[in-house]
């Protein structure tokens, strides 16, 4: 191709990836004083795709640049293709940088072409453009025995303004349910990359049980309490009222049973990994629970967490009285505590994360910069902007943008 004076050229390079390709081509451009306007690279299974957009220097030998690039590409064993870019087309591309940018995270035990096709179709129908796709999880082994309990996650960076944001999120929710994977849709901002405080519900979030149900079984009122608990978590009855009803049924239970229950709490899959990473990168971690302080303190000490707020059971003569001490930690109190912790830690509320499963977590999820409904009740999933239900609780790390390559064992030592 013939090049005119001071033209914008897009060079697309492809072939087997090897050390020195980018350096060698950049040295050619440097020799001719070309100005690099954009550069990007992807490597899939050692197959390289590299794009370099550059502008030639005025009064330079444009043909000489292309010739030298072609020779260098031949030496490196890669192919190179040139596309001229008009000033008008380049200016339109630059203006696109001012448009809204979002991050869409696809997460599941496996990700299929059907899932990716469905999400990308919705993105296109909403008038959004995919700028970049990154795999956050490690490479998938072929042996099925090695795939057990692994996660699969890709992150899409998209740009533009959705035609109907609410409709798009509803479509994502439908897909998530039908195709058994999770979709997170977040606005890209500096706050997304600077989360510093995370607050967890405890029962059915950090642990895979409702402690009050465990106590009720010991007291011989398991079915009665479980029924009330379920109605409360679904938001069908007021949490505070349900709380009072349930603890009254525990009157007379020997307090010693709490230690046995605490020592046998079923910890949620992925919690050890999640907490280790969050602590390593400097998060302040809190438990905000509608459960009980005895069990919250047990977990706080076990994982060396920073804050814990829950309800305190009244004990007299070694037995539960059926009453409680202090204020009830309900939905409003959880949201207040989240904001208070953010103030104490001197972080913007947009730097906070909240995770919960029940209706009494909704206000906390709404108040946080990132609210995640974890294996939540249907009402909570429908209301929360983000939900996680197909993998363990360490799936939160991918919603925060971390890659498996960042989370290797060396980092956590």
Any overview of this molecule?
With 413 residues, this protein is α/β, with parallel strands linked by helices. It has 3 domains: 87 residues, 2-Layer Sandwich (Alpha-Beta Plaits); 91 residues, 2-Layer Sandwich (Alpha-Beta Plaits), CATH 3.30.70; 210 residues, HAD superfamily/HAD-like (Rossmann fold, 3-Layer(aba) Sandwich), CATH 3.40.50.1000. Helix content is 37%, strand content 26%. The strands form 3 sheets. Strands 12-11-10-9-13-14-15 form a 7-stranded mixed β-sheet, sandwiched between helices. A 4-stranded antiparallel β-sheet has the order 2-3-1-4. A 4-stranded antiparallel β-sheet has the order 6-7-5-8. The model has no long low-confidence stretch (mean pLDDT 90).
CATH hierarchy: architecture of the largest domain: 3-Layer(aba) Sandwich
State the domain count: 3
Q: Calculate Rg over CA atoms.
A: 27 Å
**Portion in beta strands:** 25-35%
Q: Kindly report the average pLDDT value.
A: 90
Number of helices: 15
The CATH class of the largest domain is identified as Alpha Beta
Strand arrangement, major sheet? 12-11-10-9-13-14-15
Structural class of the secondary structure composition? alpha/beta
Proportion in helices? 25-40%
Shape assignment: elongated
CATH topology of the largest domain: Rossmann fold
Per DSSP E runs of 2 or more residues, the count of β-strands stands at 15
Low-confidence stretches: none
Q: CATH superfamily membership of the largest domain, which one?
A: HAD superfamily/HAD-like
Q: Specify the biggest β-sheet.
A: 7 strands, mixed
């Amino acid at each position: 191709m013939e090049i005119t004076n001071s033209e914008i050229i897009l060079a697309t390079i492809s072939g087997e990836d090897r050390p020195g390709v980018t350096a060698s081509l950049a040295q050619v451009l440097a020799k001719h004083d070309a100005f690099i306007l954009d550069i990007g690279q992807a490597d899939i299974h050692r197959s390289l795709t590299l794009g370099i957009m550059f502008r030639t220097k005025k009064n330079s030998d444009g043909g000489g640049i292309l010739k030298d690039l072609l020779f260098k590409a031949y030496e490196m064993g890669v192919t190179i293709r040139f596309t001229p870019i008009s000033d008008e087309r380049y200016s339109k591309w630059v203006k696109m940088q001012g448009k809204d940018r979002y991050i869409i995270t696809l997460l599941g035990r496996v990700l299929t072409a059907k899932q990716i096709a469905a999400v990308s179709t919705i993105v296109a129908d909403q008038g959004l453009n995919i700028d970049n796709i990154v795999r956050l999880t490690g490479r998938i082994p072929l042996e099925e025995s090695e795939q057990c309990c692994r996660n699969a996650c890709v992150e899409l960076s998209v740009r533009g303004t959705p035609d109907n944001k609410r409709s798009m999120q509803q479509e994502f929710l439908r897909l998530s349910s039908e195709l058994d994977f999770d979709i997170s849709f977040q606005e890209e901002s500096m706050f997304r990359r600077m989360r510093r405080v995370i607050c967890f519900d405890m029962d059915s979030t950090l642990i895979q049980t409702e402690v009050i149900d465990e106590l009720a079984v010991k007291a011989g009122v398991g079915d009665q309490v479980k029924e009330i608990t379920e109605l409360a978590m679904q938001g069908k009855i007021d949490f505070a009222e349900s709380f009072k009803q349930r603890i009254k049924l525990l009157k007379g239970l020997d307090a010693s049973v709490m230690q046995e229950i605490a020592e046998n709490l079923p910890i949620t899959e992925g919690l050890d990994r999640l907490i280790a990473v969050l602590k390593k990168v400097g998060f302040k971690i809190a438990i905000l629970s509608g459960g009980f302080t005895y069990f919250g303190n047990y977990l706080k000490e076990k994982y060396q967490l920073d804050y814990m707020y829950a309800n305190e059971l009244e004990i007299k003569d070694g037995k539960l009285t059926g009453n409680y001490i202090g204020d009830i930690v309900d939905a409003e109190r959880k949201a207040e505590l989240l904001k208070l912790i953010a103030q104490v830690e001197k972080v913007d509320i947009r730097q906070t994360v909240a995770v919960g499963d029940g209706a009494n977590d909704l206000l906390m999820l709404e108040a946080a910069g990132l609210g995640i409904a974890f294996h939540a009740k249907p009402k909570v999933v429908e209301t929360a902007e983000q939900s996680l239900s197909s993998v363990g609780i360490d799936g939160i790390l991918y919603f925060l943008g971390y890659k498996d390559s960042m989370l290797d064992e060396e980092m956590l030592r």
